[in-house]
């Protein structure tokens, strides 16, 4: 068996949760007290109402008529108007907007993972001059507001032909979200012993094969976290999208909703329905990947 195969099997064994019970500790019995008392349950209920209450009101308003929203903005609808979602989907052109947002978000997530993964590997495993300077650059770049660069970006993108282009917007997102993803993946790589890669080098593996066959499988929770953070941020981003995208057929969902809301006499029931349609893909993706998202943050150890 080659050294690369041995390292990959060792990484899989390392990532697999152990079912053995530690010495001196028994398995927790079902139904035992976890320490959550009445005060803890009260705080959890308050936080749940605080987080979910606006969404419930938003849903109620999307199922009302405009007159009913004026009379009872917080109450449940007397007549559930599910056809509001169909009307909002058609009138706000949410289908094309969501498709554009998915293209932008997925491209942003993939590009950020590639850029941040290679940068983190180079910073932790290669003998690069001035590593501390690169760390300082990443920390400073994550703290600077994007508004500082809007004017020069507009000039450069117009000159390069990237203005009013989804690809031009994606390139900006790569630059904005890659520094945080690089710091996150770097913390994963620091926690991995270099002996795995040394064993693969003995077998003749190059740096690219080391990265794709050894490093990526061992830090995949970090890649999922970086992709989820970058993708959701790109999906919800508004300022850069409204600045660099003009054509109606290229607008992401956030701008499609904004344009629909800017009518002379907006129907707030339809606006609420369109807002829920826009939020649904992000909610579904986050719910499906929330465990991996939290796992990536906790395993990353950004303080390393």
UniProtKB/TrEMBL annotation:
Which UniProt keywords are listed?
A: Cell membrane, Membrane, Transmembrane, Transmembrane helix, Transport
Q: Which GO terms describe its cellular component?
A: plasma membrane
- Top-level taxon in the UniProt lineage: Bacteria
How is this protein named in the record? ABC transmembrane type-1 domain-containing protein
Does Metal-binding count among this protein's keywords?
Answer: no
Q: Where in the cell is it found?
A: Cell membrane
Q: Which residues form the ABC transmembrane type-1 domain?
A: 98-289
State where it is primarily located: membrane
Family listed: Belongs to the binding-protein-dependent transport system permease family.
């Amino acid at each position: 068996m080659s050294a690369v195969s041995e390292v990959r099997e060792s990484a899989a064994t390392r990532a697999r949760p152990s079912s053995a019970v530690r010495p001196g500790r028994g398995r927790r019995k079902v139904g035992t007290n976890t320490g959550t008392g009445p005060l803890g349950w009260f705080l959890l209920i308050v936080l749940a109402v605080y987080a979910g209450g606006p969404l419930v009101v938003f849903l109620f308003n999307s199922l009302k008529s405009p007159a009913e929203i004026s009379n009872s903005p917080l109450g449940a609808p007397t007549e559930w108007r599910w056809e509001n979602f169909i009307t909002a989907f058609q009138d706000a052109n949410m289908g094309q907007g969501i498709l554009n947002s998915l293209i932008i978000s997925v491209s942003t997530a993939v590009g950020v993972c590639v850029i941040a993964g290679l940068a983190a590997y180079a910073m932790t495993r290669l003998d690069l001059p001035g590593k501390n300077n690169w760390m300082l650059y990443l920390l400073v770049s994550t703290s600077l507001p994007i508004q500082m660069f809007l004017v020069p970006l507009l000039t450069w993108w117009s000159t390069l032909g990237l203005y009013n282009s989804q690809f031009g917007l994606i390139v900006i997102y790569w630059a904005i979200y890659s520094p945080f993803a690089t710091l996150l993946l770097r913390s994963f790589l620091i926690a991995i012993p270099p002996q795995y890669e040394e064993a693969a080098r003995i077998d003749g593996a190059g740096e690219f094969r080391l990265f794709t066959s050894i490093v990526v499988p061992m830090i995949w929770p970090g890649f999922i976290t970086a992709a989820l953070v970058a993708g959701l941020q790109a999906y919800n981003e508004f300022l850069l999208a409204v600045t660099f995208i003009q054509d109606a057929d290229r607008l992401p969902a956030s701008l499609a909703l904004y344009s629909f809301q800017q009518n002379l006499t907006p129907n707030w029931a339809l606006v609420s329905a369109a807002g829920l349609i826009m939020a649904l893909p992000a909610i579904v993706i986050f719910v499906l990947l929330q465990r991996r998202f939290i796992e990536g943050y906790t395993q990353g150890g950004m303080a390393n």
